[in-house]
Amino acid sequence: MDLPQKRKRISYELTNSQTSSREAAPSSSTNGQAGGFVEGSILRITMRNFLTYDHSEVFPGPKLNMIVGANGTGKSSIVCAICLGLAGKTAVLGRGDKVGLYVKRGCSKGSVEIELYRASGNLIITREIQVENNQSTWMLNKKHTSQKAVEEAVKELHIQVGNLCQFLPQEKVGEFAKMSKIELLEATEKSVGPPEMYEFHCELKTFRSKERDLENVCKEKANFLEKARQRNERNKLDVERYYMKKRHLDRIQMLEKKKPWVEYETARKELEGVKKEREEMKKKLKSLKEAQEPLLRKIRSVESQLQPIEDATQKCKQKHDQLEYRNKEVDDIRQDLSLKQTEEADRQKRIGHTQLMIKDLQKELQNMGSMEDVTPQIEAVNAELRKIQEEKAKLEGEMSDLRRDKDEERMTNTKKTKKRLQNRQRSLDDMMKVKEDKLRTRFRDTYTALKWLRDNRDRFEGNVYEPMMLVINVRDSRHAKYIESHIPLNDLRAFVFQRQEDMEKFMTEVRDTQRLRVNTVIAPEESCSRRPPSRPLETLKPYGFFSYLRELFDAPEEVMSYLCYQYKVNDVPVGTEKTKSMIEMVIRELQMRMIYTAEEKYTVKKSNYSSNVVSSNSALRPSQFLTMTVDADERRQLEEQLRKAAVTRIDQRMAAIREQQAKLDRRDNELRANKKKLSELKGKKRQLEQKISTKQDRYLPLKANCVQLCCDFLSLHTSFISFSQCARLSMEKVYLALQSAGLSAEKTKLETDCRDSSAELKRAEVVYTKLDQVKNNLLTTCKTLMRRASEICNMTPGETAVPEELHQAFSQLPDTLDEIDAMLNEEKTRAECFTGLSDAVVEEYNRREREIQNMEKELDDKTNALTTYRQNIAEAKERWHLNLKQLVDQINERFSDFFRSMQCAGEVDLHSENEEEYDKYGIRIRVKFRSSTQLHELTPHHQSGGERSVSTMLYLMSLQELNRCPFRVVDEINQGMDPVNERRVFDIVVRTACGVNTSQYFFITPKLLHYLKYAEQMTILCVHNGPYMLPPHKWSEKAFIRRAKRRQIP
């Protein structure tokens, strides 16, 4: 290859956050035409802080671009930049679902800039990605715009990053073979067909769908129309009978309108007769009231004479009642006197008994008078007891002084110590609370589950540990960043369980019941917490390592076992700046998978394709959760010291005093028992004296009760004297009764005469009341009949005459109620003969007639629309099918040629089970890699992975010369191929992609076979990445070419 004659292109990557001094390539359309670029080809790709790149610019060629580099160097990052820079979705790439994940780790934003060739002036698309809010900022030709505008601009250039026939990233290679025939046809139409081909296809599917709908609608409407006509024909006779019945019902209605007027006229005439009778009865009632008035005046005169006599009689009655009450009291006193006489006899018996008891007690008291006096003995015992009490008080005072001295000494010696211990314990609790507050702020669900665990810890059989960030205690806060960098955040907030059943019980409660998002892990059955490292720490100290991660923190047994098992904290060393200064030697000689320096983390991997060692490093972030250290051993020691703060120096003296007090208590008890016996002897005489006194006190009241009985007898005699007044009051009452009887007889005669007159008057009043009631009822009836007649005839309120329009109809009807009732019965009987008819039948008949007319019109419209759709389908099919068949034939011709060149067979055809079902059309790929087999359809299951990759690659190459898209991207499709097929496919790719009428092609691969054939139109972009890369300002293309030429000289 003649390097000087090729167009100058540079591609470089900056891995150490350096800035580029190179400006972007020119944006004139002349450069694109001169280089052979087609409309929409990529001229330049610029990446800043994107995935593995700090800053990189790639200048691809117009034909085949081979992007070569080892795994992990950043080849697929260029593919991601093309997709995201051209407004593609992250789902196309099959990697992270958030666009912020494509920004380089540790950076807050990144950008991708793509320059596309356009005849009217190159198009520069810039996308800046923000990590914080996962949003993007777009620019077209350095001017801010929206994502919608960018998508429209990309669509105008026929770029489809979502079409697998144009853009096939590494993670989507396997999905190409999984595409159905229908999906492959649509992708091919969009990729290589004319712009209108896919539109015609969509129109055909739409027209066919609407045609099926219209056919079904027309068929349904025709069937429904025929059924509606048949039903109406059956109901026609019922409708005629219905109208005959309606004529009878109209006559019944008119009779019912006239009947209230006839009833009203009859009631009005009856009302006039009742009014006359009422006036005559009113006159008779007035004459009877005038004749009764003299009798009433005489009755009132007799009643005035009877009133004083009745008052005097009432007074006599009251006095007589008082005397009766006094007589009752006398009877009560007699009964009380009888009771008291009985009580007196009983009292005399008790007096005799009490006198005998007093004599016996006095005799016993005289017998005790000769006994010796025990008072001196009692006084001697009291004196000795007072002496013992004084000694006890003295010992108690000394004991109080000793307690006071002990308390003062304890307070003096332990107050400061206790305060210091309490302050230290409070500070430890505060640090723990800070860690819990951080957990509550960042992970609300985890904190809620923590509170539930603390309240229900007794429900678990094994050990359950709170989130690791709370139980891990870093010994030195400066080392917390290593722990947090090494252990993922999901595990730092995870609960650790010793038993599997406990973890399932916990997850059922918090995740299924409370709907909380929490993480849990289970410790290994065999403890790994004391697992030794792979090599002793002494062998690592010459390289600057001072510890393994496990020795930097404390944790419970199960938590440490899990971390050693899962993250090998027992085998990850931590170094210093010295380690960083000799990092190359460390990686080369120690060959450890992961190491930490003072501020960085290094991960070392060995290449799968060679024995080369690849390392990557990342800066350590400051610690967020483990900076607060709480020493659990120190906390337990503080609690123990607080419980044991006491003084024992004075205990011996206090024990001696307690022994003396016990001896005094025993002597005191003996003296008190002796004193009790002496006191009982002395108290017995006193008790006899008290009993005699008590009996004498009871004897005196018994004698006093005799005086009260005599007073009651005198009271009874006084009440008996007033009984004689009762006879005089009885004589006076008899005299008053005689006077009252004479006046009452006269009053009774007058009342009899008045009662006869009143009976006649009452009968007259009853007759008048009835007539008045009948008159009011008839008046109400007339008003009701008038209102009813007005309502039936739809008259306005206040109108009393029959409306003119009803006069003619009423004149043809009978004028009496009997004749009207007879005609009503006759018409109703005739109407009832028409049974089984209803308004619903007629309404249904008329409604169906209207529906029939509407359906006939709709059926004509739908039939015309169906004819139009069939014409449109025929025209669209003619425009689409012929061009599509030719396109598939061209693809098949190239596809078959490619397979024949590889001594295999392949075929592409247009497949459809039904020519009228346009949504079932598809492209079928059939291949044969061995002569002994038949052609088989390309599926994800029948062919091997390498065979599918070859078929996919050759199909895409078949589209290359037909392609109307400006570029194509294929990422690592040759990974599953054997060397023979890979060489054949590579030759076909070079020959096809470097042709005259082909568009730009990107072929990404991590490796190439030896002695491949290359074309002059190819552009090879080698991606290098690693700590030994030259910065851009030190790179010299001329020096590189000179060194390459020198190596070629033998």
Strand order of the largest sheet: 1-3-2-5-6-7-8
Cα distance spanning the termini: 18 Å
CA radius of gyration is 63 Å
Note the main sheet. Answer: 7 strands, antiparallel
Total number of helical segments? 25
By DSSP, the count of extended strands is 25
By helix and strand content, what is the structural category? Answer: alpha+beta
Can you tell me the overall shape?
flat
Helix content: 55-70%
Q: How confident is the prediction overall: mean pLDDT?
A: 76
Uncertain regions spanning at least 5 consecutive residues: 1-34
Q: Approximately how much beta-strand content do the residues carry?
A: 5-15%
Coiled coil: 264-291, 657-698, 838-879
GO molecular function: ATP binding; single-stranded DNA binding
Region (Disordered): 1-33, 404-426
Biased composition (Polar residues): 13-32
